[in-house]
């Protein structure tokens, strides 16, 4: 069943607008309907991010309450609803279970605020040009930061979680995935904000660095995370878009070469050219690991070629602001263009690797002659 068919059936059955009856007595059937509505809403936003099409299910029409943060086996108890009532009574004011456990519904429930904000991001980005204002985008950024701050503690990722034997692979995946959803929203927002302030690229570089490096944890910690998720698609959905910004920074340093305050990563460490090279080197290894037989194998191969050539250019060429020499290291106009694999790219062009994920939005990148990219791969 396609995403469009799923949304059509969902709205036909009215599962998107299920009003809460008072008194509310949660049961297995009602919770399953709420979970189905939440899953469809979330996957619809994922599909929009991939295809660049407007969401099929707007948050403005979703009235169904969120499912409860209770265990599946509690819903299955046949005692007249006593077990469910007791579990509901134990929930905190935010509707979360106080026992600190991650149930099958917990991640989907926590994902909803991010998906709702993403829906609002798409409304701004895919709506009329006149509707896009810096104030509206900044308001979305504030909402995103608040949503991340309100995430339950059990779903907040910490750097020590990777090496903590008390954190299972399943729990680590959920925490890391929530972090990626947050970073992706910030990535969209910063790309929109860059349309109004092209000089203020520090936040865009920071979120790109954070999103890419966080995704790489799936590959560098494959032993603990490999059984939790088929995460090959994550490299294209999260790591590669951020990697494009990092490639730009290597080819045309603007933030790392600035004399102003250093841009820092999520741990407070300054982002340097050396750090960017290390992250892109790991990204290159991740892309090489994806088999050509995979569904995204061809796309990953195209990304791999460009990342590798950008690294070659940065490490072997003459890249940097004010470089007036021509040839492989830069153009004769002061370094405003750099040749990657024999193709000259203007520094304002986003290296989006010629893949159809995320960069299908017109607002994500300027006009670009894709015939030039075909020469690279």
From TrEMBL:
GO terms for molecular function: DNA binding; zinc ion binding. This is Xylanolytic transcriptional activator regulatory domain-containing protein. Its main location: nucleus. Transmembrane segments: none annotated. GO terms for cellular component: nucleus. Residues 319-334 have a biased composition (Gly residues). Keywords: Nucleus. It is found in: Nucleus. Pfam families: Fungal_trans. One of its GO terms (biological process) is DNA-templated transcription. Residues 318-339 are annotated as: Disordered.
